[in-house]
Amino acid sequence: MRRDARTPLLSTLLILSTLLIFILDTFTPLDVAIAVLYVVVVLLSASVWQRRGVLWTCGACLVATALSYVVTHLDVFSVAAVGRMVVSMSAIGIATFLVLRGQEATNALLAREKALRRSQAFLAGSQRISKTGSFSIKTPGGDMFWSDEAARIFDYAPDITPTIDLILARTAPDDRVMVRAAFDRCTECLGSVDLRHRLVMADGSIKYVQVLAEPLFSRDGDCEYLGSITDVTAAVVSEQALHNSQVQLQHATRVTMLGELAASIAHEVNQPLAAISTNGEACLRWMNRPQPDLEEARYTVNAILEASARATGVIKRIRALARRSDPQHLGLDLNLLAEESVDLVRRELNNHRVALVLELEAGLPPVNGDRVQLQQVIINLLMNAIQAMHRCPSGQAVLTLRTERRADGTLWLGVTDTGPGIPPAEMPRLFEAFYSTKPDGMGMGLPICRSIIETHGGRIWAVEHASDTPAGATIVVSLPAMEAA
User: Taking every annotated instance into account, which residue ranges of this chain make up the domain PAC (predicted)?
Assistant: First the structure.
């Protein structure tokens, strides 16, 4: 029988009460069911002992009741005394049963309360670690409740009652209209909420928070929003740092690529410059005649302007590739991008004696993208194809640049060469960072191309040629058409 050490006085009182009831029942002439008082002992034992202790108490009371009957009626049998004993013992048994059921219910309630407290502690700890608070909004009044972590995110005391005015006081001025609209959406029960906005704290620091909320409906049709608010400042800062790193890496790769294209760039610039010089000399000759031929001079001046515009266009494209700037997505003509990219690698094609085949489908819809980044991808693919065919016999090096519109609304750009092809074992690693099939390659060209294309909502992959087709490699870029995007 396990006794509660915190209540020794009550335990002693129960023992003395049991002895007193036994003495009264045994040694007094009272002709009543004194043993029924043992029920009080059983009831009080529930607050002192656990299940086993109560059962021992019940047994002791039953034995005391029977022993008292034996002592007082050993010689004379009395039906009334037997009836009183049976009534007393039944009352003791029923009381014990009820006490044990009550103990079980109490213990279950205490266990649930303990589990609830443990869950609350775990939830508070998890919210603290994950920087995620919870809240609720009742409709239509807009009464709000939130967790301690939610209050901490807003830098308010945990016991403060949240209101939309307190939330707007911490919200960045540019985001307040958006936050207010989301709150009104909740009070009118108009569906889920998914919102990211900024907070301006008391010290002037900026926090980024992500708010998610879903409506819950009771059986009576009442609506209440339950949601979470997460401090995503660290993630946003990391995303910004990653974006800056990607921009810098892409810029460095473009500058490296421009260095490889220096001869082609010089050739592209020298051609219009040579045309300007030739037409300028011709214009002087037409003007220096005894009878100046103004029509011919006007024609040569127009030719000079055209060549100058062409040289200016080349310089602009080169400066755009060399400049480090954030992407600017606009509607672009994919065929025009392909032709401009080919112009920049024309010298490389001639030096490596590579025949170029352009299969550009007319009437393509525009793509939504950044001109510099997409040109970087196309030039990189063209240069890879040219370098892959450096050992091809004369007349067998053919580079095909193809564009087409697919039935699913995407635009495909494919670059095919007649080089040795890509070994099947290297296919899965082709777009891994720092992996290159070239002895002197850095292994960053194709991974950057993939990053750029995925940022534009597209895909890039290598096509494995069938065994019955000529050797070579094909890289395909898929981009969503602007109307589909």
Answer: 193-244
